[in-house]
Automatic annotation (TrEMBL):
This is Cation:proton antiporter. It comes from the Bacteria. The lineage of its organism: Bacteria, Pseudomonadati, Bacteroidota, Flavobacteriia, Flavobacteriales. Gene3D superfamilies: 1.20.1530.20. It is found in: Membrane. It comes from Flavobacterium ginsengisoli. Pfam families: Na_H_Exchanger (PF00999).
Amino acid sequence: MNNIKNSVFYVTVIGGFTALIYWVISKGASLEVGRNIVKKSVESNHWKDFLHSMIENLQHPLAILLAQIVTIILVARLFGWFFRKIGQPSVIGEMIAGIVLGPSLVGMYFPEFSAALFPKESLGNLQFLSQIGLILFMFVIGMELDLKVLKNKAHDAVVISHASIVIPFALGLSLAFFIYETYAPLGVEFSSFGLFMGIAMSITAFPVLARIVQERGMQKTKLGTIAITCAAADDITAWCILAVVIAIVKAGSLSSSLYVIGMAILYVIIMLKIVRPFLKRVGDLNATRESLNKPVVAIFFITLLISAYASELIGIHALFGAFLAGAIMPENNKFRNLFIEKVEDVSIIVLLPLFFVFTGLRTQIGLLNDPELWKITGLIILVAVVGKFFGSALAAKFMGQNWKDSLAIGALMNTRGLMELVVLNIGYDLGVLSAEIFTMMVIMALVTTFMTGPALDFIEFIFKDKITAVQQEIGSKSKYKILLSFATPEKGKKLLKIANSLVKKQADNSIVTAMHLSLSTEIHSFDVKEHEKKMLLPVIEESHALNQDMVSLHKVSSDIDSDIIDTANQGEYDLLLVGLGQSIFDGTLLGKILGFTTRIVNPDRLIDKFTGKEGLFENNPFDERTRHIILKSKMPVGIFIDKDLEEVNQVLMPIFSKEDAFLIEYAKKLINNNGSQITVLDAGGEVKNTREIQETIRSIEQIAPNHIMIMNDRTLKKEFLESQDLMIISLDSWKKLIESQSIWLNNSPSVLILKP
């Protein structure tokens, strides 16, 4: 009755007022008489009108900007992903993506497309948004600096970092002396040109260096700590020097810039002595996610904007103000993490790639059309490497480091990355750097950042000290070794229960390693120890409760599934246990299309398809990561699907084919070590007919006659399934169950899917 009443009301209101609207418009047409209204001319057909309208819409500034952003983000992510796959920081890929979209490649070979996507009149909007992205990014960089570390290691770090600034600065200035007459823009003083060449040689990219240290597992080592501390000290010092250089360039001379420098010092003092204590107080009172509400967030954003505005007004660039605003944020790690979460994704994923492309649009490799210009480019790279790499290495050696660590510090400090591009763009905007020099310096930034990884590998090779974390942890090869890799502490505890039930009574002959991998883009240099503790401590406590000896392992990774595979294969583990991941592409039509295309364009998957390891149109019940792990791991793999596992006492083990015979060995382990009750379901009649399976079961029955039972009834009751703690099934049999849409799936307990 209620539904009828609502329907009548709806029809009456909508119909009545629609009629009223029509009547008013009809009557209103009579009011147009004498008002000289020009009707829009209609072409011969409406389709042409529509197309004409579409073309006009495509040329609207907002449409162009949105098309630019979508294209830039997609290309940047693609190149970033590719370079991560080859062991390089993603920033390298994003920098190259910018150059590719610029006149150096797309502009050269597809000029019409380039002109349509990046018309000159749109570049102002692109620059504006990229500057906003940079301001937010520098704010994050400031927050990522752990000033406590600087306080503790200040002496060594300051000596090494300042040496790594002054040596390349002097060499860059000397280089400027030789190339000034030929390559400096007309009307630019030598002091301005030379100072910018010097500071451009002196920059270290703190965020890139921190990621490399994390991904190589160096953050706990003495070397990693020194490198991060040096980079942090370098960052602060270099940005202060850059502020002075900008002041001198804008003023024209050192004496003219003294007012600017004086104002800058006063501004820094106010930020440190007045603003910082106030922000600390606000941060202490609002350190939880719930209390970090919009008014509180507004306070910090206003501080950022005022700081950036003040530094721009003084004449030392808005980016310095953003960096300083980040550095004076409350030191509470929890607070910083919460705030970084709010800023980082927008700045790094959306806005920062715009900066890379804007830089790429300015980089014209085609200008280097003479062998002499490439010689100068090579000389710039040589001076940059000698100054930064060897300058840092010699300083570190002088401070008491061995040659291996000294050279490694040199290689890390030579990383320039994005920070170099920021300096170069400032110099280009100020008119200090010519288009040719700008392009040469961008190439130098790419080369020096690219060489960091290979240089570290080469240093390791030279000194032959390649002891991996895996080799330290695995111990004797004769022991039964289980590696469990978990994403959350809860999953880790469940996987540990399964591992424990397999080796409980064989403590002397087994090793269980629990590993958590953190994605490098989601964890910050100051937060590594805290994050490790948060992830591993609950699992360690569970191991104590189970009385299970366990080795814990934490790594920061740029490619989690590949690192899981490498760790398992290199460690020669006997069993790898992982939780089942979920694909973001499942569940919708668009998702399935995207998922299919993703699988096709993945180089690893393409190789597997061409070699016949995986069918192109194969319907797989696992997500991409799990499939990759199953395919590449050289040992048995267990994929765990959790349905509130508490114990491993009642275990169902379906046998569908002869190939499932290997499962009986796991039944044996569970009975011997955990006293589990195993129900073997002879679903395919193979237990009856396979001598090997019969003999294994008979040997179990002799030792533990009441712990294994054969079941022949394929129709399993709901009550029986619910009474089981765990179902262990082979990978092939699980796929068949999925395909047949078995009712088991609805009522099954937690599942461990085993690949032999």
